[in-house]
Structures
1.
Amino acid sequence: MAMVEVSFPGGKKVDAHMKGFTIHTDQPVAAEGENSAPSPFDLFLASIATCAGIYAVSFCQSKELSTEGLKLELDGERDSETGLIGKMTLSLALPEGFPDKYKKAMQKSMELCTVKKHLANPPSFEMKLI
């Protein structure tokens, strides 16, 4: 059984089915879609941010620290030659009173993100027609 199965419900919509969930995607109107769901690239960016986010919230929970006010933002800078994002910055707003002694550990925790690790050590890709 495949890790992800993809279906095509119409137009530019492409849905991913995995682990009992359906993840809907669509393209913006400018790309001939209906903008009814995030684009696959939007989900890619969200997967990086939410992956780092789960490590951040888990760190706080493991230390019994408040997560009130915890906020993570991802920004990217596009490479002018390739048009691809060449640099991503994840900025984490810490809760008020977050202990200084845990700041480096929090940053190291976020760097454990599995999605980020896959980007740093990308898998090979094989496209097969069956």
2.
Amino acid sequence: MRLNVTAYIARSSPVRQMDARVKVCLLAAWSVALLLARSWAGVGLAALALAAVLAASRLPAGRVLAAAAPVYAIAAFAVAFNALSGSGEAPPLAALAPAVPLPAAAAGLSRGLLFGLRIVLLAWGSLVVSCTSTSTELTDALRSLLAPLRVLRVPVDDVATTLSLAVRFIPLTAEELARVRDAQWSRGAALGGGLGARLRAGAGMMAPLFVGLFRRADALARAMDARCYGAPGPRTSLGARRLGAREWAALAAGLALCVAVALL
């Protein structure tokens, strides 16, 4: 069983060629701006900006929308909860008669739609970054952005390496679980039945699963030790990149847009 832990889509585009550090910084600013947006004007501006970025990234819109399917359930719950509660002040619908009071149910529905749209836009923005950046690029970007913390003796390289290994072990865990399940099934283990039977079968797979994972971790530790990981001296990179004029311009424009979304 193969588990794809990265949503990366190999497709050439201006967004794909952008430095991952810029995309990570803009994603963080985008998240804060959406959390601070309290009006339909701000959220509408964010939606238009995201649509433009999605078009520039040349990603298949259907695939991006389908990848965020679990988020739609959360957004629907937020809409339903606010519509049923019907209390609080609803955000004005931009310039559409903001002074006209709304009934309690309509006010709750308007507020819920605003919250749900913010959640969906946040998920879509994260998917644009993950679909246009490899896991290695994102890890290197994190290492570069955390580099100033070295002054405080924070092991930035170790943190980035740990994150990369954690991401890599997700598919390995899935493969090990599939191997254990197939081995028990071939030996006649009862893996079906009701919920209780399935839980008991799953509990029986935990011991061999962890044994296999610890075996992989021990092999990884020996491999890292054989390659002198942790040796003194600064670490270097084969493909070190510097931010150019285009990256700085995109970063400035993106941050200005995020400020506008938060203030509207």
3.
Amino acid sequence: MSMNNPELARVALTYPAIDNHAHPLLREQYRNSFVFEGLISEASPGPGLTQDATNTLACYRATLQLGKLFGTNTEHWEDIKQIRQSVDWLTLCRICMEPTRIQCLLLDDGLGGVAEYAAGYKWHDQFTQSPTKRIVRVEVLAEGILKGVMDDIIRTGSAVDGPALVGRFKQHLHGALSQAATDPEVVGFKSIACYRAGLDIDPNPDLGALDRNLVMTLLRYEVTKTLRLSDKAINDVVVNMTLRVAGECGKPVQFHTGLGDNDITLSLASPALMQPIIKAYPNTKILLLHSGYPYTREAGYLTAVYPNVYLDFGEIFPFLSADGQRSTVKQVLELCPTNKILWSTDGHWWPESYYLGSIQARQTLFEVLSESINRREMSESHAIAIIKRALFENANKLYNLNLQPYYSG
């Protein structure tokens, strides 16, 4: 980093951080279960991931940064893959996690594959000074509940009664959400409605459609033995109930927005579509994930005009180029109040995702804010306060963590 604004550089590099949205690391025996190029791209497995992703500016930068971390000057991605394979898994995790200065992890452990391949959330405490907490992915919770209800109907041979099925599903879902909301290990909820039916969530779900959708889901499940909530009416009910319960219990709800793999419909991934649902639950704190990229300005607008809306700027590290990251952070800061922005890595599977997500974010914040200082648009103390809020203070307050920043020296 430049020697201009040295105190800002020190804070940007060393201030403790709360990673407010991430996922568990793999267990050692499964360290090679996923294609490593997923570290630098959301592309689905195949040529788009193994060939295209390695020819991006994001990959070139990650290669150089990981090479420096591993003590080599290589500029070749395949060298990085070979080097990391030669390192014991726990040692690799420590090498990557120590420089991040992450004090606390908030983990969504409902990501597909976590139960089979990943470590439990408390396992991650060995890398942080404060205990890891959980974020409950509500669609996965709802799928488990609905599967249980349907298994019971199939096992007992009960007649399929649409209204009764709706009633049982809603009752069990409300109970599970309420139980999670009062669990001290759970600090918030997360919805992936963006992946399932889009972000145009209806504050008044069509109960007639819900009846039909649940019956059709039951019939499909009876044949295929697989269940995935992708019908809009069902997803709308899940989200509305989550927002209601979360608001009553004072816990925030994260929403995947924007940047994601090809499972989303991009035109339905803009947080601007969420205005009706935001208005319907003014007492529920809503966090828009991933800067809403590429709809960052829309996301920032919502945080500026709705008191209950917050904006996370994770996942763009390391998926975007350095210029793209700077541009996105600048768009976040165009309108978004700085007491409502939160940082995350969206780290998952590989410890390198936490490392890159941390060092790139810290560097980007420093560079963007230094420019503003040098143009005399803010003081250095203003910029330092923004970094402290983004890395630690805003998440500490939003999730009611009651932590004090910890310095390890």
4.
Amino acid sequence: MSNSKVAEFTAPGMNSEAAEQAIAQLDNRMVALIDLQLTLKHIHWNVVGPNFIGVHEMLDPQVAAVQEMTDTIAERIATLGGVPVGTPKSIVDRRSWEDYSIGKGLVKDHLVALDKVYIGVNGDHRKALEKLSELDPVSEDMIIAQLAELEQFQWFVRAHIESSTGQLQS
């Protein structure tokens, strides 16, 4: 399956080349968010140990919010004339990072690993913003709003692995 622009139209006032470049940026973010929501649910199911219930219950609202972000991006891709492809194989084929490696594990281990996932997702959202700022202010605005929420989720995770002196556990 191709995720390239296939429609003969895009958003009014936007040229096709800018639309195709914006779609590519959005597709990358969609893949990352689909992966993130699955990773969050995996952690939700497999976290154990002290503070289990707090972490278990913290993750479900993150899953729901990230799922909504994914839907928003997919619909923007379609609006711009692209095809949002979210099948499992296509997601794995298009991602550029390794699979989450922890199965059943302690709260600390999962949250340290999840912080690294958020570092990647949030950093790549910022990189996409640089490109989208020149291509499509609507898509840029969507990603800005998502990044604010994703950074707050990372803060929630870090609150569990931060010392009183501000050092993160590793």
